[in-house]
Amino acid sequence: MRLSRRALAAVPEAARPRLGPAGLRTGLVHLGIGAFHRAHQAVYTEDAGDPAFGVCGVTMRSMAAAELLGPQDHLYSVLERDGEHASIRVIGVLTEVVGPETGIIRIADPAVRVITMTVTEPGYRHDPATGRLRASDPEVAADLAGRPPLTAVGRLVAGLRARRAADAGPVTVMSCDNLVGGGRLLAGLVAEHCRLGREEDLLAWIGSNVAFPSSMVDRIVPAATAADRAAASRLLGVADRAALATEPFRQWVIEDSFAAGRPPWEQAGAVVVGDVAPYETMKLRLLNGVHSLLGHLGVLAGLGTVDEAVARPDLAEVARRYLEYDAAPTVGPPPGVDLAAYRVRLLSRLANPALRHPLAQIAADGTHKLPQRLLPVIRARLARGAEPRWAALGVAAWMRCVSAGHADDGAPLPVTDPAAERLRMPQAPPAQVVDRLLGLLGRDLPDSGELRALLVDWLARLAADGALATVRAAVCEQPRP
User: Fold this and answer.
1) Is 316 in the same domain as 258?
2) Which residue from 1, 168, 239, 290 has the highest number of Cβ atoms inside 10 Å of its Cβ?
3) Which residues of 336-358 are buried (b: 16+ CB within 10 A; e: fewer)?
4) What is the domain range of residue 312?
């Protein structure tokens, strides 16, 4: 029997939805109904318990999610794993999953008061170095020329345009992606899209009726596997083709700036604050930064998952040194947060063997991820006259991955990045690779002779000796005090 409303009677009572379908109404539209949203914000929204905030999920690239969830009455399970321990629950907060055209109509519904987004960093189609919309991007240009929008910002603007025309009232738009100042960034991209499209009246309406709070999200949600779905089905007693696997840890910090009400997320454990920035900085530089460091070194070494990387003593030691010596000194801890304990728990989370988070997924889209994660650490360390040794190793490992196009054993490494064609330099010497790629990450970075020398040295070592030997030698060269 496949999971559905009728099949819930066969599901253990403790695993049934906490927000049932009776009385559930759509009050929230989510753009990008992927695994992360369903295992994170949707769980918080269900636990908040307000039936006026059922979630309409909007697909962005294909209708696969709708085809998967529709036959299950939009029910799915979240399997939490930590080592040998596992628990499961069914989430029932989704009211429907629709395509982008219908999503635009839903945004114009007066009952909808919140719009959230998880479209990944590249999905915003902006220049990470400037925060500006890439107007020269062919898809952005086509949206601005008047075709039915295909980009995330174009579809959001179309939805807000329809909402204004329907006189549907104020609404809040919240990015839930790993972006610095996501609310400000998204507000700026929307404003720029309106200006380029000569929609000044719409921009004025948005300025008076739309709030753009920032948020920080944290939960490791790898792509679900057949083994995950099989485990979920065993625990549920029914088949769930949309099951997700994740870790027990979750965190959501939300800026308290809403235009028309919101679910009581704080009742579900979210932290609502006046300023998200300290939490955002901590998470991006520590968790996401060490993720990128291990991701690129791991794929070069031919490893498959992040727990395999953390299980290597030398890689684990480099991760600890990055966190302690490079990242932590650049972070002002949020109120009540013990950074030392945060670092220890972080590495424990990455070592969770039940998740098997693919390194290739972590290492994708470096031109968008590194400017948010490793480069702020590098800039802060250089500004203090300190050497960003381990953060630079992460950047050099990225340069090696994308320029060479193969792992240390010669296996090909497909490059998943919006700038992939500009990154391949298989025969170029280290200095040439650094000179070309450094400017793609930040326009100010090529001016730092110290950073350039550090990157050239790391890249030469990685090319000559491979990731594991380079890390092993580096750890021996500078023993921990």
Assistant:
1) no
2) 290
3) eeebeebbeebeebbbbebbbbb
4) 277-477
357 membership: H or E segment, kind and range: none
Q: What is the pLDDT of residues 69-95, one digit of tens each?
A: 999 999 999 999 998 799 999 999 999
Q: Is residue 243 located within the same domain as residue 293?
A: no
310 and 265 in a common domain = no
Model confidence pLDDT, tens digit, residues 175-185: 999 999 999 99
Q: Scan for tokens 């507000």, then name that residue.
A: 187
Domain final residue, candidates 212, 240, 273: 273
Instruction: Find where tokens 């027990």 sit.
Output: 248
Match 């603007």 to its residue by tokens.
157
| 75 shares its domain with 214 | yes
pTM above 0.70, yes or no: yes
Q: Which residues of the chain have pLDDT under 70?
A: 479-481
Check residue 481 and give its pLDDT: 57
DSSP bridge partners of 271:
253
The pLDDT of residue 430 = 97
CA–CA gap between residue 49 and residue 18 (Å, rounded): 8
The separation between CA 429 and the C-alpha centre of its own chain, rounded to angstroms, equals 33
The radius of gyration computed from the CA coordinates of the chain, to the nearest angstrom, equals 23
Are residues 459 and 313 both part of a single domain? yes
In contact, 357 and 427? CB cutoff 8 Å: no
| Count of structural domains, the chain | 2
Q: What is the pLDDT of residue 362?
A: 95
